[in-house]
Design goal:
With 144 residues, the chain is mostly helical. Helix content is 56%, strand content 6%. It has four helices and two strands. It is globular and about 50 Å long. The termini are far apart. The relative contact order is 0.16.
């Protein structure tokens, strides 16, 4: 009895099935969003830190606390920045124009959503923290 194996063929890129699951291998990390979204997140965190320093920076007892929070914020925002610059030497990056991004759809774990909604969801927590820092600082400064 002789067993023959079925011939193995690998499809080319043009013949790949449409429902094939693709990984992000070989793609620039962070290229799913335009740079403006990442800058808006960093800007919201800078706004939050600025509001905290303006409101609570005059008190001697909070200087060390605010300094530690600022250092941690630089580290937390700096690590992805360094990773991006390191990956930029290995992977080609073609930035998505903002107009093209805003008129597109974004694939998430829960399904497709409009890009505007994805940007709103990304900005929800940083903007809420910045607004909260501003309001709490304003209440502290005004002595309410």
């Amino acid at each position: 009895m002789q067993i023959q194996a079925a011939p193995v063929t690998t499809p080319s890129k043009d013949e790949a099935p449409a429902d094939e699951v693709r990984s992000g291998y070989g793609v620039m990390p962070g290229s799913e969003f335009p740079p403006a979204i990442y800058f808006s997140v960093a800007g919201a965190f800078a706004w939050m830190l600025g509001a905290a320093w303006l409101a609570f920076g005059t008190n001697v007892g909070t200087d060390l606390d605010l300094t530690m929070v600022t250092v941690l914020a630089f580290v937390f925002l700096g690590i992805p920045t360094v990773m991006h610059h390191t990956a930029a030497t290995r992977y080609p990056s073609v930035p998505t124009p903002m107009a093209a991004f805003l008129s597109s759809q974004v694939d998430t774990a829960t399904g497709w959503m409009p890009a505007r909604q994805a940007w709103l969801e990304v900005m929800l927590i940083p903007a809420a923290l910045a607004l909260a820092a501003t309001l709490i600082g304003g209440v502290y400064v005004l002595g309410l």
